[in-house]
Amino acid sequence: MTAFPLPRDLRGYGEHPPDVRWPGGARIAVSLVVNIEDGAERSVARGDVADDLGAHWLRHRAFPGQRDLDLESAFEYGARSGIWRVLRTLRRHGARATAFCCASALQANPSIAHALVRDRHEIADHGLDWDTHSALAPEVEADLMQRSRRIIEEITGVRPTTWYSRDGLTLHSRDAMIDEGFRYDSNSFDDDLPHDGADGLPLLVIPYAGDTNDSALLSQYPTAASFSSFLCSALEMLGSEARPGPAVLSVGLHPRIIGRPAYIAALDTFLTRVAESGAWIATRQEIADAWLSETAGG
Ligand SMILES: [Zn+2]
């Protein structure tokens, strides 16, 4: 028989989340996350045994020991062209995002770092490289986290607010995040609202989202229209359903994908709808701060 409680929280706020509002009385906080990882992916060019297939160019296959210049170039598009189209679109809508930055991607193109700071986007740590942490020993992971945090701080002049793993946490990641001084955690998909850290850790969790994320373009969403429709459906549902409490709608964006000419309209359409809805577009740090101040003592 299973012993309770399990080391997981399957209850959360349940039917009665805190009935608070975001600044301006908004019911929905929209968090835009721009992933700066192009050029930080595994590649034969940097000495890995095979290339990373995360560019979502489906015709590609990993060729162990052999560079795939086409695949490399699909990532390069994000750093060379896509990011600027994304930043222009955000500027046009007056929208500030949280940038999940791989340190080596900023080293490869510091002008991206400068533009993110100039446009007042939040700087977050997405690792030294766009790599897997799942099997790392605790001291190795902590060392990587510290190195990436220092490099990002050096290039941007800003201390990253949080660390987000490419593909999940180890059992030690959150302790290392606290030791490194990160202010909140986004490594979760478990709720519509921020909540206290797992296992009583003093680290607020702001869940991220894998569905409202452009990484599914070319598979789930073949066109900009289908992706924007998916995002707008989430916005409308969260705004109209009869429930207590606010919500956070996280949207994940990748310059090599949403920055393509055919897809950027999805972001433009969604941001237009967000403005009409009265939702609050905020960085994740602003969401953390607002949540903590609204729920303090409650
Ligand atoms: Zn990412």
TrEMBL record:
<dbReference type="InterPro" id="IPR002509">
    <property type="entry name" value="NODB_dom"/>
</dbReference>
<feature type="domain" description="NodB homology">
    <location>
        <begin position="69"/>
        <end position="282"/>
    </location>
</feature>
<protein>
    <submittedName>
        <fullName>Allantoinase PuuE</fullName>
    </submittedName>
</protein>
<dbReference type="InterPro" id="IPR011330">
    <property type="entry name" value="Glyco_hydro/deAcase_b/a-brl"/>
</dbReference>
<dbReference type="Pfam" id="PF01522">
    <property type="entry name" value="Polysacc_deac_1"/>
</dbReference>
